[in-house]
Amino acid sequence: MSKDPNKWIFQNKLLKDVENFRLKLKYKGDKTKIETSKILSEAVRTGSLDISFNLNTLPKKKFQKLTSLTKLTMSAAGASELISEIKYLPNLVYLNLTGNYLVNLPFEITSCSALRTLLLASNKFTKVPSYLTKLTLLEELSFEKCELENISGINANVQLRKLNLCGNKISQLPEEFMQLTSLEHLDISDNLLEKLPEDFGKLIKIKELHVERNRLEYLPNSMNCMVKLRVLQIKPNPIKVFPRIWENMIELDLLDLSSLKIEELPAEVVPQLRGFREIILSNNLITALPTELSTLGEVVERIDLKNNPIIKWPITVRQMKNIEFNWSSININNVTE
């Protein structure tokens, strides 16, 4: 019986397809090995590894060959937990885990005892991971846009110089927070804070402070001790009383108290304002200006008082060339001296 030519052609094609598929798999496997080898060699050479967006870029078992790694970025990798292989990286000084789904850190993180920068922004933390206290050399820590409500325990990281807690659900700073006396940059904006601790001024090394978009009604007088402050961002907050904390802030060049709820500019505060280059008080509720404000005419470059319902305005103040005000927003006939 002769063979069916169609059947023979079909079988032959099938064998070729199987062989081609096998070769493709082999090529893919060989290519993966080559790429993995390249990633490993590059990481060893530079001391840096970025596996963002795909945790499978490098097989976990390969981390054992990266003990000299100093910088690791695993942002937006879809991770719900930190890989335990992190324990093989004792020389790590920088770890970026931004944009994952982490709710805690494993015990293995304690093996990274040299860590100085830890970025945990845009994760699912509701409290400070307990093992964080073991990272005693940590200088920079970010929990920006997580879901933190409780920050107890963070005080153990006394070497912190930069701390970002922006965009969380923090309603109060615990008393022990004042132990972070090495802080130079602190961002606690976009939280639920109604007040700052009365001894907040103990953080005397702070150079940059962000407290905007909270529920603060006043700033504690102890902040007068923050003599190194260079950047202060406050607005908006429902602060009604003009803060009296400025006389020692010789590094602060710009005073921006705009978009608050300040109702009065007290005469006794004016001498504290002589060191500023610019003073911005726009979008408040100030109705009266003290005569003493005219003493700032030669020492302050710009005073912005736009969008305030001012009705008492001494003529000596009105004659100041460095004051900005939108006269069209008020009835000039109601202005008194």
What integer value in Å does the Rg equal? 30 Å
Strand content: 5-15%
Question: Regarding quaternary structure, how should these chains be classified?
Answer: single chain
CATH architecture descriptor of the domain at 253-337: Alpha-Beta Horseshoe
Uncertain stretches of 5 or more adjacent residues:
21-34
Instruction: Summarize the main sheet.
Output: 9 strands, parallel
Mean pLDDT: 87
Residues in helices, as a percent range:
10-25%
List the total number of helices. 2
Strand order across the largest sheet: 1-2-3-4-5-6-7-8-9
- Classified in CATH, the superfamily of the domain at 253-337 is Ribonuclease Inhibitor
Write the H/E string, N to C: HEEEEEEEEEEEEHE
CATH class of the domain at 253-337: Alpha Beta
Distance between the termini: 121 Å
- The total count of strands amounts to 13
Structure description:
By secondary structure, this protein is largely without helices or strands. It has a domain of 85 residues: Leucine-rich repeat, LRR (right-handed beta-alpha superhelix), CATH 3.80.10.10. Helix content is 14%, strand content 11%. The chain is built from two helices and 13 strands; from the N terminus they run αββββββββββββαβ. It has a nine-stranded parallel sheet. A four-stranded parallel sheet has the order 10-11-12-13, with no helix packed on it. Strand 12, helix 2 and strand 13 form a beta-alpha-beta unit. The longest helix has 42 residues. The N and C termini lie far apart (121 Å). About 4% of the residues have low confidence.
